[in-house]
């Protein structure tokens, strides 16, 4: 009996959603960093097995929004939750239950869908601690399943797939077998650049950056890409460029390397930094940068 369906991966920022999805798919679909709210769009990763097709939707970490962008990100996440067959709520086992979890719990309760709790980062816990964490979480909600995992070490992920499958519907594959993501190449290329920025910057900058592809051209000596990096303050532009252009160069070289791997050929990347004052509070700009996936809601 073949099964297929959508699994929304939800959780607080930094819980490990993208790591989990990339591990399950054995391919880098979503970018990762230690900065909260790395993921902005709902990213579908598709895993096709002989007996089932799993369509994972990696949602932006749900959080109390401070800006218009935050509200849009939450809206993207909620929409994925409404459309899925089963919810996988991933939590960082090292973190205590907090206000951010109540926020998610309220949403989950309203949906009446099967919920699998994944207690992540067990590689950082001993057995006693893990037992205590499982017990504490079992009091929070009547979860359909609780599975301790380490997304990073790919620990217990076969069990996760087995359990998820039991909640999928009987039916044919929803996407072609060879497809691993529903995001196009341009999006993935911009995300690679954004990841390199996130890995090198701190505080407000990671949240203030958007990356747009301006031009892509196939030339005899490889692929030429021009990308625009948008920040929301003039001071951030200076930081991103760095002393004698060192920071932007380091971002460019790291991204260029990964882009070459992705495209399987030589890549020449040009980066420009532009200030769009306070863009995260302007709905038209959020839409223009492709971050509002449901702008007709
Ligand atoms: N030790 C350990 N670290 C992990 C594990 N899973 C994820 N991490 C780390 O936790 C951090 C956040 O992981 P992400 O996968 O980007 O988290 P996310 O939930 O997608 O975050 P947002 O995109 O901000 O919502 C990264 O530094 C990961 O390397 C794990 O199983 N063990």
From TrEMBL:
G3: annotated segments = 58-61
Q: Which GO terms describe its molecular function?
A: GTP binding; GTPase activity; ribosomal small subunit binding; small ribosomal subunit rRNA binding
**What residue spans carry the region label G5?**
149-151
The Era-type G domain is annotated at 3-170
Where are the stretches annotated G1?
A: 11-18
Region described as G2: spans on this chain: 37-41
Q: Which Pfam families match?
A: KH_2, MMR_HSR1
Q: Which CDD domains match?
A: Era (cd04163), KH-II_Era (cd22534)
Please name the InterPro entries in this protein's record. Answer: G_ERA_dom (IPR030388), GTP-bd (IPR006073), GTPase_Era-like (IPR005662), KH_dom-like_a/b (IPR015946), KH_dom_type_2 (IPR004044), KH_sf_prok-type (IPR009019), P-loop_NTPase (IPR027417), Small_GTP-bd (IPR005225)
Detail which positions bind GTP.
11-18, 58-62, 120-123
Q: Where is this region: G4?
A: 120-123
Q: Which HAMAP family match?
A: GTPase_Era
Q: How does it assemble?
A: Monomer.
Mind telling me what this protein is named? GTPase Era
**What is the organism of origin for this protein?**
Absicoccus porci
